[in-house]
Structure formats: structure tokens, C-alpha cells
Amino acid sequence: MCSGRVDLEFIFRAFANGMDGVFIGGCRLNECNYITQGNYDALNIVLLSRKIMAHIGLNPERLDIQFMSSGDGIIFTEVVDDFSKKIRELGPLGKAEEIDEDQLESKLAEVRRLIPYIKIEKRKKLASRLKDEKEYDGLFSAEEIDELLSEAASYYIDPAKCQACMICAKRCPVEAIAGGKNLIHVIDQDACIKCGTCFEVCPPRFGAVARLSGEPVPPPIPEKERKIIRKSKKAVADKG
Ligand code: SF4
Ligand code: SF4
After folding, report:
1. Does the pLDDT of residue 72 top 60, yes or no?
2. How far is 110 from 148, CA to CA, in rounded Å?
3. Which ligand lies nearest to the CA atom of residue 184 in the structure?
């Protein structure tokens, strides 16, 4: 496939599946047959992934991207040989970095869960077209990735504002919102991938979804208190 199709998810899924190294081969920069220039996108994904790897304690050398044409068979062989040798020298993923298996699994799972959020937050830089190799290292800084991952926003539905219109639950890509007709909606924080869709789609007249950063998410409202009693029905109930 075109290297422009390579996604952060592919890279971190490969590591989560136990790969010790990931190599991406793309067409030479500026030789893309299409105006999309997808190999630049792949390069940016790799630069970002390498910083994320460093953030979670993995050696970024385990991920590489090289550009060549389909006629560069010899170059391809040499590059892949060199990469394989480097990975063999680095040793198994995690062990060489002295991260225990469970810890590695949970770090990779957390990164994968945050991928939609990372892609939204870094979308402008991911669309960059770096012409000079010297710029590669500066596209994403270690500090910005530390900040990005430590301050990942959480989303919370304010029970006092939710009107159970159900739009957020229908649009959530991972079914992380529990709700139903006349029920205050609640986000399952463990399932939420922090894509921000619920925040975007909650009608402004309700404004029930809050984006929280650097503060704890309030506990979910207990199930038995989620039923919404509409004003007209409440008046009838009170009279009765
Ligand atoms: S941010 Fe909202 S829409 Fe996105 S996964 Fe979390 S609950 Fe679902
Ligand atoms: S979109 Fe807003 S008002 Fe509608 S169910 Fe979700 S949180 Fe509640």
C-alpha cells in the first residue's frame, strides 16, 4: 500500500503484537505519482511515533522509514539488512529497555487508546511538508509530547445539563456513552478514546459535555438517579 496509508495505529499495533522493530518503505520524497504526496504524511507519522516511543521508554531506533524507488532493489536489500541487524543488536522489545512485560503492554495500550486524540491535537503538524532533513528532529519536541500525553483531556457529561437527546451516544465511535431515552448520559472513562466527538456534537443549547484537562473526572451519577423527569410530567406527577 501507499506509505501515506500508514497510521499511528499500525505502528503501535505492531509493537503491541510483539514486533521488535517496524520498518516503513516509501517512494522517494517529491516523486509521488499523486498530488497527495502521502510519503510526507508517513514521514510525519514516523517522527511523531518516535517521540511517543521515547516518552514511554522505548528506543525510537526500533522504528525507521526510508524512501526509495521500485528500481532500488539493491538499496532496499541493504537498508533492510542494516535495519534487521540493528534490531537484533537492540534485542527484544521492552527487555532491552528494562520495561517489564505488563508495564509495556499497558503503556502501548494507553498510547493506542489515545491515538484519535493525538491525531486531532497534532493534525496541523502531521500535515507538514518538511523539505530539509535537518528539520526532522524539530517537528515534534520531547517536551510537547510529554505535555500532550500527560495532559490528555477527558470528557464528562454534566448530569444537570444533559437532556438525553442521545446525539452523543449515537456519534461516539467506540460506544463509550451509556444512555437511552430520558436517561442522563454517562461516559465510560475506560472505554473513551478522547476523540472529542461528544463535545462537538452536544447541542450548544444544552452544552452538557465538558472538556477537562488537569483535573479529575467526577464520578458517574448512580444508575438509579439517571432518569430525567421532564417539567410538564413533573407538574402532573406533583398534582397527582
Ligand atoms: S470523547 Fe466522547 S465521543 Fe469520543 S470516545 Fe470519548 S465518549 Fe466517545
Ligand atoms: S448530546 Fe448532550 S444533551 Fe444530548 S445526550 Fe449527549 S450529553 Fe446529553
Report:
1. yes
2. 13
3. 2
Which amino acid, residue 221? I
In order, the DSSP letters of 109-121 are: HHHHHHHHHHHHH
| Ligand 1 atom 8: residue of nearest CA | 172
Report whether residue 165 contacts ligand 2, using a CB cutoff of 6 Å.
yes
pLDDT digits (tens, 9 = 90+) for 142-187: 999 999 988 788 999 999 999 999 999 999 999 999 999 999 999 9
Instruction: Determine contact, residues 9/115, Cβ cutoff 8 Å.
Output: yes
SS3 24: strand
Is the minimum distance from the CB of 194 to ligand 1 under 6 angstroms? Answer: yes
Q: Is the pTM of this model over 0.85?
A: no
Q: In Å, how far are 177, 187, 190, 235 from 154, measured between CA atoms? A: 13, 10, 11, 36
Q: Are 15 and 93 in contact (CB under 8 A)?
A: yes
